[in-house]
Design goal:
The chain is 48% helix and 19% strand. By secondary structure, the protein is of the alpha+beta class. It has two domains: 30 residues; 151 residues. Helix 2 packs parallel to helix 5. The longest helix has 29 residues. The N and C termini lie far apart (80 Å).
């Protein structure tokens, strides 16, 4: 009889433990816990910019001729990153040589080739976060915009659509950050 009592009390404990494990995995998947490829890249760029005492950086995109990536950095607060094709790439190449990174950022924001601009507002300069504790990161690609605040229903998306958008945005952002960090590491010397 004593062993029967043990079995009956273990079963609820095991199902409770399994339930807690499932709940933790769901929470971590939607908390900032959806793996962020851009997190380490954003932190690396912020460290590199701090060390170089820069608040802006720009680089050509070797995979897209005529395209550039640029960032404005507000230490500890925000990274604003833009990538776009520019109709007169030689002008931006000259500005890269002169290390006129702010000008390149402004040019890409104002005069990029229509439909090619990607813009990220990375709150806290910590990479994209699927469900942040504070304000959400914003990702714009052409005429589409999504705020990664964990509120997929408010954005009229399914959870799966939200996750896919996050994964795609995160991969693009990580690539942009890597190009910019390499530029800082190269002494910001241009092309």
């Amino acid at each position: 009889m004593h062993s029967m009592f043990r079995r009956s009390t273990r079963r609820p404990l095991l199902s409770t433990a399994a339930g807690l494990l499932l709940a933790v995995s769901v929470v971590s998947a939607m908390g900032g816990g959806q793996d962020s490829r851009s997190e380490a890249a954003a932190k690396a760029l912020a460290r590199a910019l701090d060390a170089a005492k820069l608040d802006a950086i720009a680089a050509p995109d070797p995979d897209n001729p005529g395209s550039f990536v640029a960032a404005m950095y507000i230490p500890g607060a925000q990274l604003l990153v833009v990538s776009a094709k520019y109709s007169a790439p030689t002008l931006l190449t000259d500005k890269l040589t002169k290390k006129e990174y702010r000008d390149i950022y402004m040019d890409l924001q104002a005069a990029s080739v229509a439909g090619t601009r990607i813009f990220i507002q990375d709150m806290l300069a910590d990479g994209l976060v699927a469900k942040p504790d504070g304000p959400g990161d914003v990702f714009e690609d052409g005429d589409k915009s999504v705020t990664f605040d964990g509120e997929w229903k408010k954005a009229k998306l399914s959870e799966d659509e939200y996750r896919k958008l996050f994964a795609d945005a995160d991969a693009k952002y990580a690539k942009m950050l890597t190009l910019l960090t390499a530029q800082v590491g190269a002494g910001g010397s241009g092309i």
